[in-house]
Amino acid sequence: MRGIGIALLLLVTAACAAAPPARSTPGPGNSPSGVAATSPTAAGGSSPSASPIASAQPTASSTPLFAALEAKGTPLNQWNTVVIAGLDGYARAKATFTPMPTPYVGCAGPVIPSSAHVAAGKVYFADGTGVIRSLSITGQLTQVATFPLTSSQQMLSFAVSPDGGRLLATIFTIPPKAATGDACSGAPAFAPGDFTLAMYYAEPGRSPRPLWNVSWPQGSTSTQVTALIGWDNVGPLATYPTSWATQGGGPIHYWGTPVRLDYVTGKMLGPIADPNACGVWDIASSGAFDARTEARSGGLPASRTAATSWPFYPPTSSTWLRWAPAPKYWDAAARTSSCRTRSSTTAGLILRRW
Question: pTM to 2 decimals?
Fold first, then answer.
């Protein structure tokens, strides 16, 4: 019998109600303009539906809840079920969906972006057809947006604003597998074609709007992949550059350097912290984050212990940096940030509010 893979998304702490309102940001009138009128299928269009699974209806309380992805009857990490549950392990709400495609990436394994995020008291999840839906703790399932995921050689990443009113998404397209040869033996991995990356903006119930797209040829030394990882009270978050294939390793929380984006343009504002000075390992909904520096030997990280708490993986040889709320250290005008060390022996668990 195939085991059930589980990915823990977030821990949540407050009553079963909507999240606190996000910091005020420009309205839809300040969204990008001058883009082509053509757009992907509207969120209300037809698509394979997700299936809610009945469970006991929760009542408002201070009981902590968490959201998780499960892989049931599919290969590990090919998530097809989203769950909202209590720390007692019992599901409050659940839905199944079409899993994300698994692109061919040569002599490596693909790094699939997260299929779900929590915002506005709900869990938002993407399926393998590009449809974003939300699941509430009462089991209500709502279609939110549809992005043009049309090929098994594509990866979708997305983020939702804390109030649930805006979405950003990227679609990364990889050339198809070469017709002959073995990439692990040195043969070309891909058939002719370029890599492409597109950024989209959407609001619930409306057609997504393309913000920008780039392409680069095979063999290019430029790494241009941006993948969305979340949206805190300061704004959208992504990784850039992003690792989209791996031959193993870890533990890793972010597959790239965390950066902040301008939600109006989808363009990068700057890194959360100087990647040459410290590594960001987790970011709270307030914009506060934890980072670390490592003792190094011969230019490589010193040995580290196994993970001791989620979502942090603290190596004993590291100096941990505990951060105050991001607005104090994030210079929006200069669009830069710097590491300001305050050592501690342990890293606490950042809790998100439901």
Answer: 0.73
Where b means 16+ CB within 10 Å and e means fewer, 53-69 reads eebeebeeeebebbbbb
Average pLDDT score over the chain: 73
CA angle 253, 119, 334 (to 5 degrees): 65
User: Given the structure tokens 């974003």, which residue do they identify?
Assistant: 132
* Positions of E strands within 218-343: 227-231, 236-242, 245-246, 256-261, 268-271, 279-283, 289-294, 296-297, 300-301, 318-322
For residue range 170-217, what is the model confidence (pLDDT) as tens digits? 999 999 999 999 999 999 999 999 999 999 999 999 999 999 999 999
Classify burial at 234, counting beta carbons within 10 Å of its beta carbon; exposed 0-12, middle 13-18, buried 19 or more: buried
Rounded Cα gap, residues 90 and 53, in angstroms: 13
106: β partners? none
Segment 53-62, tens digit of pLDDT: 644 444 444 5
How is the chain split among helix, strand and coil, in percent rounded to 5?
A: 5, 35, 60
Tokens standing for residue 202: 């959407």
Taking the chain, what is the end-to-end CA distance rounded to the nearest angstrom? 34
349, 286 contact by CB (below 8 A): no
Q: What element of type H or E holds 328?
A: helix 326-329
